[in-house]
Design goal:
The complex is a heterodimer of chains A (268) and B (316).
Chain A (H helix, E strand, L loop, with lengths): L1 H25 L31 H37 L1 H15 L3 H12 L3 H28 L2 H8 L4 H38 L10 H8 L7 H31 L4
Helix pairs in contact in A: 1-2, 1-9, 2-3, 2-5, 2-7, 2-9, 3-5, 4-5, 5-7, 7-8, 7-9, 8-9
Chain B lengths: L1 H29 L5 H10 L6 H10 L6 H13 L13 H36 L4 H14 L3 H15 L12 H30 L2 H8 L4 H39 L4 H11 L2 H29 L4 H5 L1
Helix pairs in contact in B: 1-12, 2-3, 5-6, 5-8, 5-10, 6-8, 7-8, 7-10, 8-10, 9-10, 10-11, 10-12, 11-12
The chains are: A mainly alpha (268), B mainly alpha (316).
């Protein structure tokens, strides 16, 4: 049953992701062309969510901003997961001074306020996707290193790992076949949460004017741009707000489903 | 003895964080695209007044034409002596600006933190005493919702209801204490989901424990059993997390201060980043980074004090 819930989550996510990425190719979206005559118009057939202060179509901007933020979040958190898990497994398997050294490094990174790093990178290097990816990946990897190291240390002490070592299997094979699957099962839980928080960070930076630069459509930046017109254009402000909220909520709930599954499966 | 080792180690960590931050911000600035002197001039005198002559004057004044390594050495020496230079934009000493800003941030953070626990404690305890009851399930749903809302959205929501519709509070600024209410509530709400969850779990775990069953067998009332045997045990994870949350607040205040135009450290940092006011950027990140490390140290000390068994894992 649990297994099926998680499959349903992942299946639906992939489907929705494909639709969201596919839509801009299918719909006649136009996120950047301005028409000042039709600024701040309410919803209509040609502009289902109305237009912004420069007369641009809000729905188009919404749909084009989404895949970009999602892509940045996925790449950043994916990088953090791979890097963090590798560090964690290495530390757990090597033990002794390598473990101490790598975990000190992790501690040091955890002592950094995450948002500060992203702010400095994005704020100083300009708001392209790359500074955001680097900043988010950097502030997320220590969690994965810490978690995977703690899980891996427990697994490595179990008899089947010792048996494989005696049988002469290479450390790489043992780590990838016997340790990694169980580690990943826990890591995907925080990865899903991490994607949600990355999307919040990206939109917060856009909101502060330090993220993606205009005229690139980005949800947080759209909110800032339209906020002065809140009383005349509530729908146009609410649309990107809801987009951020629903996306993050999606990943929060997905992480809960993954956590339930991980908790219910008997270890090894 | 081990406590001193812990303090020493964490202070060393804080110093290292400060050093890395100072170096990083310096490196970032060197690889910046564009002419820094021009940006500063524009920020200080406005785009119309920024003549080539003025740009050169400011380049000399801020000693931006000197070799990179010398600038780095200068910067490090002055940081070590507590002199953070002057703001490029306002021309006031950075340390002076930061002390004022830190005071504002500190006040906001403490109020928000206390407020969030005033709300979280009753809800969390009640939900924990009746796990899977109506209120428990309600808080789980509300918690997931609130946790998915970035703080600037919560702030915008509060502004549109209480400022624009009801006109109960002034929109932005810092002059009266009424200005503090909405930013504090926004920050408090961002802390709420996690703290309610922690309190709820701690209480429900204690409730199900053997020593509580024993206390009830002994003939204590439900209330006395909880007061005499439950509260202290449930407090350990809660207090630990509460101390850590003071550090999490730092993530929130940058956005919230900017949204409400509240003159704290976060707002100063964002403004400085937008204006490329390098001394202020460096000063802000230094202060925020070290404050973060100090708050973490305080959290560790609280944990060890409450539960000495944690000493080993804290020192590790």
């Amino acid at each position: 049953m649990r297994q099926r819930t998680v499959r349903a989550w992942i299946g639906t996510s992939c489907f929705l992701g494909a639709v969201i990425i596919g839509l801009p190719f299918w719909l006649p979206l136009d996120a950047t062309s301005q028409n000042l005559q039709f600024s701040l118009q309410g919803p209509s057939w040609s502009n289902p969510l109305g237009t912004d202060h420069l007369g641009r179509d809000v729905l188009s901007r919404l749909l084009q901003g989404g895949p970009r933020s999602l892509g940045i979040a996925l790449i950043a958190v994916g990088t953090a997961t791979i890097f963090g898990t590798t560090i964690g497994l290495l530390a757990a398997y090597a033990g002794r001074w390598a473990d101490a050294l790598l975990m000190r490094l992790t501690d040091l990174m955890l002592a950094f306020p995450g948002i500060l790093l992203v702010l400095l990178l994005a704020g100083l290097l300009g708001g392209g996707p790359l500074p955001l990816i680097i900043g988010i990946a950097f502030s997320h990897w220590p969690q994965f290193a810490r978690l995977s190291r703690n899980i891996a240390i427990g697994i490595i002490q179990e008899p089947q790992v010792e048996a494989s070592q005696i049988a002469g299997l290479s450390p790489l094979l043992i780590l990838s076949r016997q340790v990694l699957p169980l580690v990943l099962q826990q890591c995907v839980v925080i990865a899903a949460l991490g994607i949600g928080s990355a999307i919040m960070t990206i939109s917060a930076l856009g909101f502060l004017g330090l993220g993606m630069q205009p005229p690139t459509p980005e949800w947080g930046a759209m909110i800032t741009e339209l906020l002065p017109y809140l009383d005349v254009a509530p729908i146009q402000v609410a649309a990107p707000c809801f987009a951020v909220f629903l996306t993050v909520l999606w990943f929060t709930l997905m992480s809960q489903a993954l956590a339930d599954q991980a908790a219910n499966r008997v270890p090894t | 003895m081990a406590v001193f080792y812990l303090i020493f180690q964490r202070l060393g960590q804080a110093a290292l964080v400060a050093f890395v931050l100072a170096t990083l911000s310096f490196v970032f600035i060197q690889i910046l695209p564009g002419d820094i002197a021009l940006r500063i001039t524009v920020a200080r005198v406005g785009i119309d007044q920024a003549s080539a002559l003025e740009v050169e004057r400011i380049r000399e004044q801020a000693s931006l034409s000197r070799p990179m390594l010398l600038q780095y050495a200068d910067w490090m020496r002055s940081v070590a002596t507590g002199n953070l230079g002057r703001s490029f934009v306002s021309d006031r000493p950075v340390s002076e600006e930061l002390v004022t800003a830190a005071g504002y941030t500190f006040r906001l953070a403490i109020i928000a933190w206390v407020l969030s626990y005033l709300i979280a404690l009753p809800i969390g305890i009640y939900a924990g005493l009746r796990p899977n009851g109506f209120l428990d399930r309600m808080t789980a749903v509300l918690g997931a919702t609130l946790a998915s809302l970035p703080s600037f959205l919560v702030g915008i929501g509060l502004i549109s209801v209480f400022v624009l519709m009801l006109r109960w509070f002034p929109p932005a600024g810092y002059r009266t204490s009424a200005h503090l209410v909405l930013p504090a509530v926004t920050l408090a709400l961002s802390l709420l989901p996690a703290s309610v969850r922690i309190i709820r779990n701690a209480v429900s775990e204690v409730r199900a424990s053997f020593y509580m069953t024993f206390a009830r067998f002994k003939g204590l009332t439900r209330f006395r059993a909880f007061r005499d045997h439950g509260v202290r045990n449930a407090a350990i994870p809660v207090v630990t997390f509460a101390a850590l949350q003071l550090a999490f607040l730092m993530d929130g205040f940058v956005v919230v201060e900017t949204l409400f135009n509240y003159p704290g450290l976060g707002e100063a940092l964002v403004k400085a980043l937008l204006a490329r006011d390098i001394p202020v950027i460096m000063g802000c990140s230094l202060v925020i980074g070290t404050l973060y490390a100090i708050v973490n140290l305080a959290a560790d000390l609280v944990v060890v004090k409450l539960d000495p068994r944690r000493m080993e894992s804290a020192v590790l």
